[in-house]
């Protein structure tokens, strides 16, 4: 018999996916250039040339049996060492290779982190607005994801609601800064306060509470914004990283788990990741990609286009009268819709070939997300559509 | 708190891994050339040149954003279509792309298959001798792996024991032909009889019983041996394939699930695989590897070396008086040890720098495995060590 649990999931298509398919279809009708598709968080700038050169060099000159051979289950030792050294240099940490576990993207890293620190029935808290895939990611492990309502003033943490929900069954707190979908970077003050509350509750409850820090947007931070390295502020931190966004290679599935050396169980957790892999069929990211990424750890794709796009949109949106917290990073912006129901608002926007995603999907009704990882030229052209849409549907709101 | 379930697994190191580490250490002492390391099933012949050329060509000439972009969750459509066409051509099947799910190696494919057709508490039967990783693979899903004792005469299926164990809770039967560790290929007669029994029991119990067919060695079949394509004999078959062995790229993590189109739930199962991925952090094999493999689907590495090695070992072993079923494929041979406890036998062999793996690990005590995916020149030199070992420890047994 096929599994009823997974069969039941087949109906539920993601709103983002439906909108993206709509955009593709509409593009076939009127030309994709004329569809302002802000639905998908897919990098739009090329991988650094050094990555490509390094791949070609290895393919030409390495022994193929060792190049394409099995990676040890925790990752290739030289790659783990290079990542540890790079993080130490950049963030003042003291990782060794024994604190790094290679994973196939952030999804793979998170799949290990959840299992390492929870058992079925335990709770993980996350904060709205949040990446909706966290629901299947966590709930299919048997743990339970609970969502703390947003602080819509700043999209930092709603601490009152958080403290109310931080019961004894909470074993981990899942954060994502810079944040998808708000684009907000958690301030040092936010992280200090979060760490402080967690340490107190660890004492009160007599068990660990981990921070699982999902950091795929860590390198996409805009001018003047400081993005604190979460692990510096809290010993029991498990950082989950992906190179998808910083190097523009989301399809190649490469990232890692880094456990703070100050965490008493750090090495145990990394070794446990190797065991968790056996149950979920993971078995390491591709060897050649591990080796190539290790050569460009401190490079990024040219991420400046995202900041250019953000400024164009932010100025236009606020000029039109939208309420909008200015993003500190990522390639998302999360303004308040011009009517209560953001689903209706986004539905109306479709008439102007603007593909916007209602905030309901992210646990934050009344707002909408724009993923501006598209060409700047297209962002510029979309502003006229945005102005037309607002004027026609909502009149002068300024 | 770290997960006690995974923490408890940390002690149990695999015997194969321990022996392989011993071989490496010994190699550092006396030169790796002098250690006859038959412990690991790691391909020893290079990937076909066409694969390397195709990778370089794409890296040089493709748009990097699309080359390294996200794969759809079931795999890249053109790749799925190419695999279906290749299987249809070679095995007379009628797969469409909708029956193929791209997975990161056989481990990834199996992780999806188990979850698609069992729920916690269900049973999966497999047949000794068997790949020991099946234990964590299955048991960490919540289903229960039960092992049917071997037919040591032929290493085909022990049908009496099988029928006794085929109770109502069995939802799937996991087979591996050509087999690791025996090297045996299931005959058409074996597969017909297996299929027949399963169909009867499906009727009797009123529920599906799936064959999960783990086929990483499908292309490594020796002269004169016919390896039937399992799915042709049984509608409810889920084939799990990996290119690790046929193309010699185990580190690149590429394979697929192919569900027999005659299975009434075939398309549902493939779509469910996409949902299962969300819970286990899978998210597709690397895009560039999917695209490159699609170009060399009908090629293999030069696998003939394995047959050469097998014949050398088989002749020597039988000449020395070993009881040994002749392998029909793979790069393994599984002779009977010269004393009851194969662990003691293999321990003694270490004195002669022969690294052999006791069959206990494979659910078949009294036998031992040799993985002869090493250079032929080394196999040749190992024969003298083998003769010396047998003469010194067991005298003339011929």
Automatic annotation (TrEMBL), chains A, B:
Residue ranges of every copy of the Aminotransferase class I/classII large domain listed in the record = 41-386
Any one GO MF term held by the record is: transaminase activity
Q: What is its EC number?
A: 2.6.1.-
Give the domain of life: Bacteria
Tell me the cofactors it needs: pyridoxal 5'-phosphate
- Matches recorded under Pfam families: Aminotran_1_2
Alphabetical list of InterPro entries matching this protein: Aminotransferase_I/II_large, NHTrfase_class1_PyrdxlP-BS, PyrdxlP-dep_Trfase, PyrdxlP-dep_Trfase_major, PyrdxlP-dep_Trfase_small
Query: Which UniProt keyword terms apply here?
Result: Aminotransferase, Transferase
Q: Which family does it belong to?
A: Belongs to the class-I pyridoxal-phosphate-dependent aminotransferase family.
Protein name as it appears in the record: Aminotransferase
Question: Which species expresses this protein natively?
Answer: Eisenbergiella massiliensis
């Amino acid at each position: 018999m096929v599994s009823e649990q997974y069969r039941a999931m087949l109906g539920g298509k993601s709103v983002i996916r439906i909108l993206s398919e709509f955009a593709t279809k509409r593009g076939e009708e009127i030309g994709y250039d004329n569809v302002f598709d802000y639905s998908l968080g897919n990098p739009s700038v090329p991988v650094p040339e050094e990555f490509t050169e390094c791949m070609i060099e290895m393919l030409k000159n390495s022994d193929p049996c060792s190049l394409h051979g099995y990676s040890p289950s925790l990752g290739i030792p030289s790659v783990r060492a290079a990542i540890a050294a790079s993080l130490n240099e950049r963030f003042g940490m003291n990782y060794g290779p024994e604190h790094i576990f290679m994973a196939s993207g952030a999804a793979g890293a998170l799949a290990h982190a959840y299992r390492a620190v929870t058992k079925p029935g335990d709770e993980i808290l996350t904060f709205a607005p949040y990446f909706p895939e966290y629901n299947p990611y966590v709930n299919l492990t048997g743990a339970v994801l609970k969502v703390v309502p947003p602080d819509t003033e700043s999209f930092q943490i709603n601490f009152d609601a958080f403290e109310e929900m931080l019961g004894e069954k909470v074993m981990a707190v899942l954060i994502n800064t810079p944040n998808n979908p708000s684009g907000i970077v958690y301030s040092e003050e936010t992280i200090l306060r979060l760490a402080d509350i967690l340490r107190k509750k660890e004492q009160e409850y007599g068990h660990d509470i981990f921070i699982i820090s999902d950091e795929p947007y860590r390198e996409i931070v805009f001018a003047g914004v400081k993005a604190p390295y979460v692990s510096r502020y809290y010993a029991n931190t498990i950082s989950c990283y992906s190179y998808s966004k910083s190097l523009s290679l989301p399809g190649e599935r490469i990232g890692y788990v880094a456990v703070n050396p100050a965490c008493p169980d750090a090495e145990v957790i990394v070794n446990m990741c190797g065991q968790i892999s056996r149950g979920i069929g993971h078995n390491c990211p591709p060897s050649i990609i591990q080796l190539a990424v290790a050569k460009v750890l401190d490079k990024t794709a040219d991420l400046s286009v995202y900041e250019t796009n953000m400024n164009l949109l932010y100025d236009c949106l606020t000029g039109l009268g939208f309420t909008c917290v200015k993003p500190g990073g990522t390639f998302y912006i999360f303004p308040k819709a011009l009517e209560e129901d953001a689903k209706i608002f986004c539905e109306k926007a479709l008439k102007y070939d603007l593909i916007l995603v209602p905030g309901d999907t992210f646990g934050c009704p009344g707002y909408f997300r724009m993923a501006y990882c598209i060409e700047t030229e297209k962002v510029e052209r979309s502003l006229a559509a945005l102005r037309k849409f607002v004027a026609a549907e909502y009149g002068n709101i300024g």
